[in-house]
TrEMBL record:
<dbReference type="GO" id="GO:0016787">
    <property type="term" value="F:hydrolase activity"/>
</dbReference>
<dbReference type="InterPro" id="IPR000073">
    <property type="entry name" value="AB_hydrolase_1"/>
</dbReference>
<dbReference type="InterPro" id="IPR029058">
    <property type="entry name" value="AB_hydrolase_fold"/>
</dbReference>
<keyword id="KW-0732">Signal</keyword>
<keyword id="KW-0378">Hydrolase</keyword>
<feature type="signal peptide">
    <location>
        <begin position="1"/>
        <end position="21"/>
    </location>
</feature>
<dbReference type="Pfam" id="PF00561">
    <property type="entry name" value="Abhydrolase_1"/>
</dbReference>
<feature type="domain" description="AB hydrolase-1">
    <location>
        <begin position="62"/>
        <end position="174"/>
    </location>
</feature>
<protein>
    <submittedName>
        <fullName>Dienelactone hydrolase</fullName>
    </submittedName>
</protein>
Length: 247
């Protein structure tokens, strides 16, 4: 009896030690950064690609991550790395270049910012075509868009224009471009505690129910969603994103 108990204890301890070693040895997936050139538009498109490890699914779901203004391709790493470690193929696109005109402020922002969002949509379409050539096995029919603030507005416009290209959309507190009132793709929004969207951007309670949308309020400030929030707040955002993607 003592011999059997000793063997059982050693097996449990060994298994537990292996699991612990695996968890502590995992390194964050680092991005492959580059600047693409869209010859048709004569425009540079900086990107950062997070490729899931070989131990994850062989046909990853692509995620296009659009930063808030004036976000760079290396920003929002807390989201990109987390999703890549879960098996997603994540690409962060820098939509704003130093040579661009400053984004408009003040009144009537939908009309005045629309050309900037259209540039962002063109960037996304361009990057998707590049991805299809480099990663042909990815599940592009399940494409996910994630965008913060102005990047969320770009994601909403992309969804309105090309709903059949997108499976799920996650907005981190976009405030100017209205949610498309559609059931497909699925729409999800994580809202800040300190910023309010323009009238008509957020669907009414009846519309949220009708179109099966999900809107979640957090205690995180709008600007902090870019990565400056506390670890607990960033973990909450990642958890909310994962929960929605698993639905």
């Amino acid at each position: 009896m003592y011999f059997k108990f000793t063997i059982l204890f050693l097996l449990i301890f060994t298994a537990g030690s292996t699991t612990f070693a695996q968890k502590t040895s995992i390194k964050p997936i680092e991005p492959d950064t580059s600047t693409l050139t869209d010859a048709k538009r004569n425009r540079l498109v900086p990107i950062a690609i997070y490729v899931p490890g070989i131990e994850t699914q062989k046909k990853p779901i692509p995620v296009i991550l659009s930063p808030g203004y004036p976000g760079k391709n290396i920003h929002y790493r807390y989201i990109a790395q987390n999703l890549a470690e879960k098996g997603y193929l994540v690409v962060t696109i820098q939509h704003d270049l130093p040579s661009d005109s400053p984004i408009p402020t003040g009144e009537n922002l939908y009309q005045r910012r629309l050309p900037f969002w259209e540039t962002g949509v063109a960037n996304i379409l361009f990057v998707i075509e590049k991805l299809k050539k480099k990663y042909p096995n990815a599940e592009y029919r399940h494409l996910v868009l994630i965008g913060h603030s102005n990047g969320g507005d770009i994601s909403m416009l992309m969804t309105s224009k090309y709903p059949d290209m997108v499976s799920k959309v996650i907005s981190l507190d976009n405030r100017r471009a209205p949610f498309p009132r559609i059931k497909s793709p699925r729409l999800y929004s994580i809202r800040s505690k300190d910023q309010i969207a323009d009238p008509g951007v957020i669907p009414s309670t009846a519309e949220i129910k009708k179109y099966a949308m999900t809107i979640v309020k957090t205690e995180t400030n709008h600007d902090d969603m870019g990565g400056a929030a506390t670890k607990a707040q960033l973990d909450e955002i990642n958890s909310l994103i994962e929960s929605f993607l698993h639905k």
